[in-house]
Amino acid sequence: MKQEATLHHARPTATPTVARPPLLILSVATGYGGAERNIETLLPLLLAERPVTVFACNPLHLQRLRLLAHPALEIHEVDASREDFADGAARLLVQRFLALRPSAILSNTMDSLRILARAAGWLPGLDAIACVGVHDFLWFDHAQLLPQVPRATLLVPDRAVLEKPDYLARHVWPHGPMRALVMPNPVDIPETPASMLAADAPFLHLATVNRFKGHALLVRAAALLGPRCPGLRIASVGHRPIPELYGELQAQMAAAGTASTLSLHDHVDDPSTLLRGARAVLVTSVSAHGGPETFGRSIIEAWAHGRPVIAFACGAPAQLIRHDVDGLLVDEGDVAGLAAAIERLHRDPALADRLGRAGRERTQREFATPRVLAQLTAVLDGAWCPRPQAPPAGAGLPGPGLLFDVSVSLEKGWHSPVGISRVEHHTGDLLAAQPVPVQLVRRGADDGGYRRLTGQELEFLANMPDGIGRLAAAELAATPLPPPRVPQSVGRSLRALGAFQRGKGRLRRLADSRLGRWLHGRASANVRIAPIGTGPFAPGAGDMLLSVSNPWDYVGTPVFQALRARGVRVVLAVHDLMVWETPQWTAGRDPRQYTGDMLAVIAEADQLVAVSRYTAGQVQRAMAEAGRAAPPLRVAAPAGLDTGPARPGAPPPGLDLDRPFVLYCSTLEIRKNHILLLHVWEQLRQRLPAGRLPMLVLAGRWGWGVDAARLAVERNWRLAPDVRVVESPRDEHLQWLYRHARFAVFPSFNEGFGLPVAESLAAGTPVLLSDHPAIVEASAGLMPALDPDDGPAWRREIERLCTDDAYLAQLRDRARAYRAPPADDLPRALLDATGLLPRRAAAPAEPARRPQEMGLQP
Prior knowledge:
This protein has about 850 residues and is an alpha/beta fold.
């Protein structure tokens, strides 16, 4: 391993502006990409405030680091081609740590994590001051490495990295020990945006030539655009690390005749000139072959120069880009849609300018290097991560406040919100925009009541780019709480270890010795993470507790009685009364006890909001049966996921896009009646002609009581090609599935509303559904409804929908007549019920059209 030092740290006079303790950065990788570019972008500002020592490997990265030529920068070159590079780099890391006493270690790549894990094994406590950046989905041995640094902080550029099933989420809180933060990529923003473009300004594609960057799809789009837009040009610029793949790409371009439209160019170190002259930037990355994008640095670089972005709606770009606001999103893999979006901006420069200006304004607020550095510096120095979000409208206002229960959002962890948690997030969006003081609370497992959130919980919620995130960030900034870790050295015993580490092999021999093990244990005992405290929970008269989940699951009646005795009013959302109505389809504690607890809590509410007329009627019946008076009750339907026809999405990875499919979106549990569909599909497999049976797509997580359904999925190898389970789908997957399904099914035995029915109809996709009253209500009575126990009837109707295109077209006409409730309908009803807001004028409801009016015979 080579070593070079541009600064000897024994000379503090060389850096008079440095005020903070040193920082160690591990940026070791044989390749070069966004992770290395982040370090290069941050370093000029970092070096203005502290000494920095960087371990690096890639020649281009090293060259760009050396160009900084700053007296506070120390560079160590690591030869990662050697088999034992992690050992050698870890020894040097320990030496520099003991010599410099840095405040933090920033690990930037997977090879860097290998070095850090090795050093932490020798020198306990290093992980307590370490931040581990994970920038993509390509880490293949993280399951072995991350448990070796359990006290480290995990940094990801977007929530998509932690939402991916079976990847990192089990290592981070609330499901694992590690702290996790969303730390966006930084970008330098020119003082002025680029000037007016020429009429023939090209579209720019900045991407290394690999399979997940979507070059092949771009070639096909260029082939469509050539005849339609003769003057349109696309320039693809990037590294070519795989000669065979680059050759395939050139052959494809020649066969498609795209030479006049699409050109390939070598990588450029600084793309600023290209960005200034581009009409827009294209991000064609896909989910396969190591994708999708986990952030997309080219997106914020385009915005920084006032340029819009066209991207496939998969991974982080699907959430980062606001469609028709600062860019255009296209269904992943939709070549015709990609070509249409490019043509749209080519023919409408004014639209491109508007989208680009919006992107630049957003980048200045969220991704400018000083803003990102302020967040990162706080974490490196052992503080909570500040968020540059606009404060909620009620921040700092006096008067009675609203205690907002966010228990479900905390319990779901990094999963995408669904069902009740989606309602909780929609309510948070509305709350953050209202002039009402809000305090976030959760169910306290220790005392069975409510409590304020800890710093850890507030910081976790602040990672969310929505109203709850804004509320949490503001409360964290305004509440005095102990820091997430003590910003000090990791223990006096480390000095004893350091006395033995001189010499190339001495440290490893010490670690294996009896003295070494004793010192290691002493040092580990001295490494403590600071306690995560919470503020006092002291609600007063006039305050309002709002819960949109089911608080009776964990909170007893005496808690609500005590709150009301203090003058606190209570508003609850009621999603269903299934335990009272159909106890055989529910899990958990004894249904009789559960029903008693639920009705007792409901009786303590000042106001109730039910998600359907059916659920409201069930509440009144249950309360009357129990001899209790029902609180005042109103009805408002939840909006669910935005599945409008214009909302782009992405197919779940591995789905056969050439085959029609039928969608059932729900948790896989016994109440949802999946076994009926699996029996029907087995029958239809044997009855229908080849090519007429659509695939059955079951989208949701596995729940309880599904042994029979799981066996039918896993053991019936004949049916296996016709059934696909999509576990924990992301929002862009659901948006795509709803819009592209031939039709949907919903044979659930019992629901309080049936949100997937409404989401499917909002996408214009018909649904065959159970005749349960709440589900029929969710469909506005527009769809065929069958007894969920009548297997033959379901088989006949599904078979008809598979074979009778005219009948399916009639159902599609019905679906297009559906009017989804506004996204704020249920949250607005909940806030109206609190009495803290003036009521809005009720808009006249548009009556749903009857089946006979749609031209479809019953």
